[in-house]
Amino acid sequence: xxxxxxxxxxxxxxxxxxxxxxxxxxxxxxxxxxxxxxxxxxxxxxxxxxxxxxxxxxxxxxxxxxxxxxxxxxxxxxxxxxxxxxxxxxxxxxxxxxxxxxxxxxxxxxxxxxxxxxxxxxxxxxxxxxxxxxxxxxxxxxxxxxxxxxxxxxxxxxxxxxxxxxxxxxxxxxxxxxxxxxxxxxxxxxxxxxxxxxxxxxxxxxxxxxxxxxxxxxxxxxxxxxxxxxxxxxxxxxxxxxxxxxxxxxxxxxxxxxxxxxxxxxxxxxxxxxxxxxxxxxxxxxxxxxxxxxxxxxxxxxxxxxxxxxxxxxxxxxxxxxxxxxxxxxxxxxxxxxxxxxxxxxxxxxxxxxxxxxxxxxx
Length: 363
Hints:
mainly alpha; elongated; transmembrane; transducer; olfaction; Odorant receptor; odorant binding
């Protein structure tokens, strides 16, 4: 058996096994399992090496005489996402998460073979929900990734002066440090960059699906237990002896305890990952919206031209444009306000406060 049979885990299990993320594979073949482990180690090591190069490039950008805000924020957003996916990868290979996967496989088999029709229907409804969300994760993730890969060909490329000539600077999808001259060996660097991005997207998308599936399973078991508790008080159970009711309720208590143990195991294995996920989501949201503040530079861009030699009506339009461009574009946060520099600082403060609270309470 290459992979275990399981409907809930099917999509993320098959996808994550293509790049060494799935831990339960080749159970009956130790030789193939060792080969798979070596394959997984090589990919994980290479991905860590890419993340290190990305962080090094970030330090290079921050030390530059002229800060490239767009590349800095783009680097930070993508690199944080990839970093969290590596924490997830480490968690998925821990004994605790393997126990969770085995629990899902065992419980689903029991439900499909031994449970009553109502319980099967409840579980099958969660199978459908999980299947739909897995497809959404997959297609949305890869659509965004592909658009990111092709965006260097869809934007206006920057230029620079070299030997009294204006030279177009070709850019890559992902910001990372390169041991080669990117401009001289652009297509080699681009293909290399696409490989890095494809591997990174695979880790991110599939780890999201696996994490979501772990949570969906817990929800399915809570709903099944809720159904059994409601049924326990129904009239068809009246008239039966006390021992029957006692045994039935004890079995429900055991199911509840099993769910509690599952959640506790999940928290022990994933709580730090969830913390880092929260941190990177907060910082990522703030850094993405900060890029909209660049819209204020549009006023300076038009001001630096020979606008004053234009006709009066054109100058009036330029003045209106300058006035509007000095108001930054903003994302609204529901009815509560908008993203701004102050909001960015507030998010960082709140993130730090949450992290300190988490560390103090868990210690």
